[in-house]
């Protein structure tokens, strides 16, 4: 592996800036006649910067009124995507006590320093959520991030990039991330393609990573009050560093990181890059396969009900959303970018019953499946 003398925070920043543009361009190429993503650069008053790339199509009134009518592909609304966001942030500052408490609860694999006056931190990451309009095309989420806790220092200003910041001694660092698929209708070949691409990216670094992180994903994206998962999963991981990880087989017992997995900043960053670079391959072919599929108002109704579940998970359980809302100077519009343009809740809905197309999805949401 080629040695890079740049600080890891700078390497991560440069990578996510490049990855964001590649993903946005690939999504724009899905629908060349649609409006381009809005590219919104911003500066965080408390320190740092970012860019939000967001797509939101105007509401369409072209749905047929009959529950039984099927809308031909040539009469579908004009945009492939209904709502999408690909955001990056590179921020630094002081974590207040509430955020520290949330972090300590979420990151029990690491002994974080305990300072009542707060902890200096640096965080850089890319986060995306894509909601296609067609109910046959699945929603996708991905997030890859790097976090540091450092000794106090001075000399940084809001809007500084990592290259110009005065960096204190790193007390703790870790990578996290993952990608998961949330279909409204179950197409096994789509699930197999998505999981297969992730598994191949993981296998470049260790054969143990995909099964460990796939299991973690199924557990993380579970909605307890519904007794179902948000979608058909993917991978999820957090707190990946050079120390033993309580979630990974044998590491807690052995008191050290397994030699079978990446454990240096450089090797874990290489793993992150393999995953980030595989995103377009994992998702875009699925959307291309489904965007012309005719759908009925009943199928649209089911899609909106599933999006309601998406909202429930993100606002009630998602760690990233909760942490973001607790961070001073948080950019609320970017944090809530993950929410769909439209969602629906029904009292005692009759959809999703056994023997229906919707019921096929519910079976795997209640009992997660091994796809590859």
From TrEMBL:
GO molecular function (one): coproporphyrinogen oxidase activity
Xref: InterPro entries: Coprogen_oxidase_aer, Coprogen_oxidase_aer_sf, Coprogen_oxidase_CS
Cellular component per GO, a single term: cytoplasm
NCBIfam families cross-referenced by the UniProt entry: PRK05330.1
Enzyme Commission numbers on file: 1.3.3.3
PANTHER family named among the record's database cross-references: COPROPORPHYRINOGEN III OXIDASE, MITOCHONDRIAL, OXYGEN-DEPENDENT COPROPORPHYRINOGEN-III OXIDASE, MITOCHONDRIAL
Gene3D superfamilies per record: Coproporphyrinogen III oxidase, aerobic
Entry keyword set: Oxidoreductase, Porphyrin biosynthesis
Protein name: coproporphyrinogen oxidase
GO biological process: protoporphyrinogen IX biosynthetic process
Quaternary structure, from the entry: Homodimer.
Source organism, top-level taxon: Eukaryota
Family, similarity comment: Belongs to the aerobic coproporphyrinogen-III oxidase family.
Pathway in which the depicted protein is active: Porphyrin-containing compound metabolism; protoporphyrin-IX biosynthesis; protoporphyrinogen-IX from coproporphyrinogen-III (O2 route): step 1/1
């Amino acid at each position: 592996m080629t040695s890079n003398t740049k600080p890891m925070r700078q390497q991560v920043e440069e990578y996510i800036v490049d990855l964001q543009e590649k993903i946005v361009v690939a999504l724009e190429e899905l629908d060349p006649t649609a409006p381009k993503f809005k590219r919104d650069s911003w500066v965080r008053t408390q320190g740092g910067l970012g860019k939000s790339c967001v797509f939101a199509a105007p509401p369409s009134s072209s749905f047929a009124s009959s529950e039984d009518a099927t809308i031909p592909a040539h009469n579908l609304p004009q945009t492939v995507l209904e709502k999408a966001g690909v955001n990056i942030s590179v921020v630094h500052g002081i974590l207040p006590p509430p955020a520290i408490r949330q972090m300590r609860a979420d990151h029990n694999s690491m002994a974080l320093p305990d300072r009542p006056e707060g902890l200096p931190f640096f965080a850089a990451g890319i986060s995306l959520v894509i909601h296609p309009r067609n109910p046959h095309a699945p929603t996708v989420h991905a997030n890859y991030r790097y976090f540091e806790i450092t000794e106090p220092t001075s000399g940084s200003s809001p809007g500084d990039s990592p290259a110009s910041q005065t960096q204190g001694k790193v007390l703790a660092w870790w990578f996290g991330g993952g990608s998961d698929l949330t279909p409204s209708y179950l197409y096994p070949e789509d699930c197999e393609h998505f999981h297969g691409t992730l598994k191949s990216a993981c296998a470049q670094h260790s054969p143990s990573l995909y099964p460990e992180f796939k299991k973690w994903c199924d557990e993380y994206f579970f909605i307890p009050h519904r007794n179902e998962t948000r979608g058909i999963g993917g991978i999820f991981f957090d707190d990946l560093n050079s120390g033993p990880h309580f979630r990974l087989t044998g590491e807690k017992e052995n008191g050290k990181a397994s030699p079978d997995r990446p454990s240096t900043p450089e090797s874990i960053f290489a793993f992150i890059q393999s995953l980030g670079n595989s995103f377009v391959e994992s998702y875009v072919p699925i959307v291309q396969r489904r965007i012309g599929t005719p759908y009925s108002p009943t199928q649209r109704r089911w899609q909106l009900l599933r999006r309601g579940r998406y909202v429930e998970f993100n606002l009630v359980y998602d760690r990233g959303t909760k942490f973001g809302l607790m961070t001073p100077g948080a950019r609320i519009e970017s944090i809530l970018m993950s929410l769909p343009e439209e969602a629906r809740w029904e009292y005692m809905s009759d959809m999703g019953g056994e023997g229906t197309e919707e019921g096929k999805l519910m079976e795997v949401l209640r009992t997660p499946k091994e796809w590859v």
